[in-house]
Amino acid sequence: MENVTRADGRILTDVASAVSWASIAAGAVAAAALTLALLSFGAGLGLSSVSPWSDSGVSASTSKNASGIYLVLVAIMSSAIGGYLAARLRTKWTGLHTNEVFFRDTAHGFIAWAFATVLSASALGAATTHVVSGAAAGAGAAIGQGGQALNPSQVFVDRLFRADDGSTPASAERNEAMRAEVSRLWTSSLRENTELSQADRTYVARLVAAQTGLNQQESEKRVNDVIVEAKAAADRARSDAARLAFWLTAAMLFGAFAASLAAVEGGQLRDGTWNDRRLVPRPV
Questions:
Q1: Distance CA 116, CA 18 (A)
Q2: Number of Cβ atoms within 10 Å of the Cβ of 71
Q3: Do 61 and 137 belong to one domain?
Q4: Residue 241 included in any domain
Q5: Is residue 78 part of a domain?
Q6: Number of structural domains the chain divides into
Q7: Least confident of 53-57, 76-80, 99-103
Q8: Cα(207)–Cα(212) distance, rounded to whole angstroms?
Q9: What is the mean pLDDT of the segment spanning 149-168?
Q10: Same domain assignment for residues 139 and 166
């Protein structure tokens, strides 16, 4: 703030911008970088706690819940540091009511959190995705024939045409043609969020019977069982996606609160108004 004297002797108060973008950018970059570092550390912890062997490592449900809690903790820690820096690095205002300073520090922390969120989602999105999913992608490449993308419906098509006795009545070319046709029917139905029609089920059952040597009734039962399995898998995927969305929402909300709260602390420490560790502006 600086005072400007007019020609008539009146003194006007010229208040500088209430937003210090330099300190906000510094806090946001620090928060984004710390988020990336903590996600890398969390990925290492997660991979070390999961094992492909039965009765070893944590369960899938425990791993999912632990991952969600860790996301919230990462958001709190990184956002708090970003908000603290955004307020602590800001130039001290003089001549303002402490309540106004309190509000501006809180706003600086919140804006720094918002900036860091956008930065993490855009500029650091590819790096974060690579760190978190890199090892999983490598494991999938080792299992999935050279790392080729696997269509989830192919697994259920394989179960349809599995021959219990190990025989392959149809030729290899005919087998591939039937699998491709069934896969197209299945993918089209899932894309439209509908089931296979009764005519398609009967037709697929005939193809399964020709491939596996089962009778028509047994083939229809296998088709129905595999469809039920596919529905259960889709429902689990939907539930996991919804749970992840809720965890991300919680992480963002807690991060915004932590950034604002830490900014108040940083501002009061900067101004020397840290009143017995109470986050309240000192009265004037």
A1: 20
A2: 22
A3: yes
A4: no
A5: yes
A6: 2
A7: 53-57
A8: 9
A9: 66
A10: no
Out of 134-143, 144-153, 158-167, give the one with best mean pLDDT. 158-167
CA distance 32 to 81: 10
Residue 276 domain flag: no
pTM value is 0.67
Q: Which of 71, 87, 66 is nearest to 263 (CA)?
A: 87
12 and 132, same structural domain?
Answer: yes
**Shared domain check, 39 and 131:** yes
246's tokens: 């809720």
16: helix, coil or strand? coil
* pLDDT tens-place string over residues 178-233: 777 777 877 777 666 567 778 878 888 888 887 777 788 888 888 888 888 888 88
pLDDT surpasses 90 at 144: no
DSSP states of 50-90 as a string?
A: B-SSTTSB--HHHHHHHHHHHHHHHHHHHHHHHHHHHHHTS
Please name the residue that has the structure tokens 């973008």.
21
| pLDDT exceeds cutoff 60 at 246 | yes
Residue showing tokens 């908000």: 83
Q: Could you count the other beta carbons within 10 Å of the beta carbon of residue 17?
A: 6
Total residue count of the chain as it appears in this document: 284
Provide the domain limits for residue 173: 152-235
DSSP string, 147-172: T----HHHHHHHHHT--TTS---S-H
C-alpha to C-alpha distance for 80 and 262, rounded to whole angstroms = 5
d(CA 80, CA 258): 5
DSSP category for residue 145: T
pLDDT at 14: 45
Is 159 or 66 the better-scoring residue by pLDDT?
A: 66
The packing angle between helices 216-271 and 152-160, to 10°, is 160
